[in-house]
Amino acid sequence: MKTTRLSPILLCLILAVACQEKARHSNPERAIQACLKGIQNLARGRLRPESQSLVLANACKDLYVEKSCRQAFGSQGALPADRRASAIAEICKKAYCPNLKEPKPQICGQSALPLSPLRLLPMWHELQWAILARDLGPERAAGLYGRLVFAQLLMQPIMATPLQIELPKAIPLTPNPAKSIVSIGQKDKKIIVSVDGQAIAGWSMPAKPSQKDLEPLIAVLKKHEKPPQIIIQADQNVLYENIVGLLDALKSAGFDQFAFAVNEKETK
Q1: Which of 7, 5, 9 is nearest to 102 (CA)?
Q2: I want to staple 69 with a disulfide (CB 3.0 to 4.6 A). Which of 46, 95, 104, 238 is the partner?
Q3: 159 in Cβ contact with 53 (< 8 Å)
């Protein structure tokens, strides 16, 4: 029979969080049961490979108390599949690492996440344990963690994709009443947004926009007879958490069809 060894860092984390405060989550049992149901759906083997990570993420997103991390899991279907794992890991790292006690997970000390998925996944698992122990309490986290990691390993080829794979070339800017291309760029610390090549005069997007903050953008998008498919075309200077904030606010405004493109010059 094979035995599994815990890494020294993970073992230290388990011992450290055992003495931490009680769960920060307002309703941990409900969040855990929803996640376990998602794991069961995955284990039945009836899900298409491309939908596995989305089903698990939506089922388990409410485990995470920090809003930006929770929103990243809930909005991951709108993120490019080849950058999904790295984007979520980066957002959750920024949300949790400043508040974790020592010894912190290895990923907290990384200025840039590793390119290799084989290196990213163990780092994510260490961070995930620290997050769950802090938010749910160590006893609840211990009962869930193994099953959650196993579910993630089942779909490792989907989740652990390289961080810097080029995206498909941008969809041409051709007139189409059913689509709107929302371009996002950063200039002098301002996030500039344009729709179908036209900048929104006198307005820039906040880093974490609410629906009210996006009223100038929403007004332009609602000029269509029906809600359009929104094609997000972001340059590489825009942080993923800014894109997630935009998607979350647009979904709150009633838009539900999203796709991604990149500038053609960035894929050459």
Answers
A1: 9
A2: 95
A3: yes
Q: Hey, what are 169's tokens?
A: 């070339």
Classify 185 as helix, strand or coil: strand
CB-count exposure of residue 133 (10 Å: 0-12, 13-18, 19+): buried
Is there a contact between 258 and 227 (Cβ–Cβ < 8 Å)?
Answer: no
Whether pLDDT at 114 is above 70: yes
Sorted by where each starts, the structural domains of the chain and their CATH numbers stand as 8-159 (no CATH), 179-267 (3.30.420)
67-108 pLDDT per residue, tens: 999 999 988 877 777 778 888 899 999 999 999 988 899 999
Intra-chain end-to-end CA distance of the chain, in Å: 50
Which of the four pLDDT bands, split at 50, 70 and 90, describes residue 61? very high
Handedness of CA 132, 133, 137, 140 (dihedral sign): positive
As beta bridge partners, residue 261 has: 233
**Tokens 């899991």, located at residue:** 73
- CA-CA distances (angstroms) from residue 48 to 12, 45, 55, 78, 145? 37, 8, 10, 17, 24
**β-strand partners of 145:** none
Distance between CA atoms of 63 and 39, rounded to whole angstroms? 13
Which residues, in sequence order, are CB contacts of 123 under 8 Å at separation 6+?
89, 105, 106, 107, 110, 113, 114
